Amino acid sequence: MFLLVAGGLLFYFRIYRVEQTFTEMTYEYGDTVSRDITDYLTGTDWSVHLGELDLSGVNEDQTGTYMAVVSHGRKQFVYRITIQDTVPPQILWKESQVYLATDRDCAVTDVIAGVKDVDREAEVFFLEGDEPCYEISFDRVGEYILAIGARDRAGNMTEGKVSVIADTPPAFEGIRDFYLIPGSTPDYQAEVSAMDDVDGNLTDEIRIDDSDVKLDQEGCYTLRYAARDSYGLETVEETLVTVASADEIQGLIGKRRIDYRVDYINGAPNIYDGGASEDEDIEQMLEDMRPALVQLYHEVGRGGYSSGSGYIMEITQDAIYICTNSHVVNKYEDWDVYFYDGTKLEGEKVGVSGIFDVGVAKVDMEDVPLELLDQLMTVHIDKTYWKSLNNQEIALALERVDKEGGLIHKSIGNLIKIKQDFEWYDQRDHTEVTIELVHGDSGSAVMDGYGNLIGMAYAYSEDPLRYWCIPLDGILGCYEEITGRMPYVY
């Protein structure tokens, strides 16, 4: 019995017994906590490896003090593990001169190459005094010294300074939205330019990314333009490419959602349509529709002249077609046509109708300056809307432009009836209005406050005094009779 007890004690003290190597240990954040059991227990190699290490209570991703446990037989050894961060972040500086763009918010990442620290959540910022700032901007060109700070979650901080030069980045001109029918092949760079204060013209260096655009499939896509100067300052601008049917695009024009003077439009039947506003405003309408108005002028003898009003009905590849009264245009074969800005071009009579007092003149497109064409528009013709009108006292107006680009006359009134019995001109129905017509108004476009063409000023009758316009359907029928063409009608 004595030998058995003695043997057991000898086994325990000489072979099985283990002891803690330590009770407290500190690690630097980022270093791996040991998983080697021999770092925790001392004893025979056989017995030490019977121990089971439990580090489930230790979070190596965060500083703090944690408890680790080693189980050995029926005993448990507890260890206090402290993870601390005493090493401040390292700011990585760019090797070359730093250039920043003026009038842009710049982040710290634009100034430095990065920050190195075992704490992946260490932050870096500009220093304004003792306060951190995460964006900075410059409103003028120049050299600036910026203070930079980097701090980890343990509070370790590094500071430094860097010299930066603020300069103007490249600037684009001529970028537009695109509205295209499927199958179009637009030139995205047409009319687009890029300039830089230091490098000058960078137009040839423009990079265009149209990888998201599907020209054969209807949809709305993003198109990107980029230009970089010799300092590495880059400007990126985005625009939209909408691929849709011709009628859908024309509908956007008619609602004044898009404008050929601002947007690139391809495939719509009439890109020059003046459209109709969503809000009724007579004064604004007259201003908006002025580019559709003209004056016809013909000198007669010594100081005499004949003149009349007109408006642009259609703009084609070959000509600008102008509607007016037959009794205006039929007097001469050739006319001086004055547009709203005072531009004078040679025009000619196309023909007149015997049904209503409607005549048509035209100006050859080869004579039209591009800068003028880029401003002109046609009157907006919505026949469906027009047919819905009857005795409604909606506001109507006309306006006459003069030869110098100013205004001769405007008159505002109301609609009495869209079709009214007319005792003259074969008793064909005419549109009656309260607009006071005076000499020279003949041939003027009469429009409502939205911009819809309602009729054309024609004449007045006396006893009682009444004012008459040629109705829209009469204008359209005569226009087709004279030209063999039909303008786009909504």
Describe this structure in words.
The protein is mostly beta strands. It folds into four domains: 83 residues, Immunoglobulin-like (Sandwich); 78 residues, Immunoglobulin-like (Sandwich); 96 residues, Immunoglobulins (Immunoglobulin-like), CATH 2.60.40; 219 residues, Thrombin, subunit H, CATH 2.40.10.120. Helix content is 12%, strand content 42%. It is built from eight helices and 35 strands. A six-stranded antiparallel beta barrel has the order 24-25-26-29-28-27. A six-stranded antiparallel beta barrel has the order 30-31-32-35-34-33. Strand 27 and strand 28 form a beta hairpin. The N and C termini lie far apart (117 Å). The mean pLDDT is 94.
Question: Notable features of this structure?
Answer:
490 residues; mainly beta; Immunoglobulin-like; 4 domains; six-stranded antiparallel β-barrel; six-stranded antiparallel barrel; 8 helices; 35 strands
Low-confidence runs of at least 5 consecutive residues: none
User: Strand arrangement, largest sheet?
Assistant: 24-25-26-29-28-27
Number of helical stretches of at least 4 residues: 8
What is the strand content?
35-45%
CATH topology of the largest domain: Thrombin, subunit H
Q: How much helicity do the residues have? A: 10-25%
Average pLDDT figure: 94
Number of structural domains: 4
The CATH architecture assignment of the largest domain turns out to be: Beta Barrel
Sheet of most strands: 6 strands, antiparallel, barrel
* Distance from first to last alpha carbon: 117 Å
Structural class: mainly beta
Number of strands: 35
Overall geometry comes to: elongated
Radius of gyration, Cα only, in angstroms? 42 Å
Output the CATH class name of the largest domain.
Mainly Beta
Oligomer class = single chain
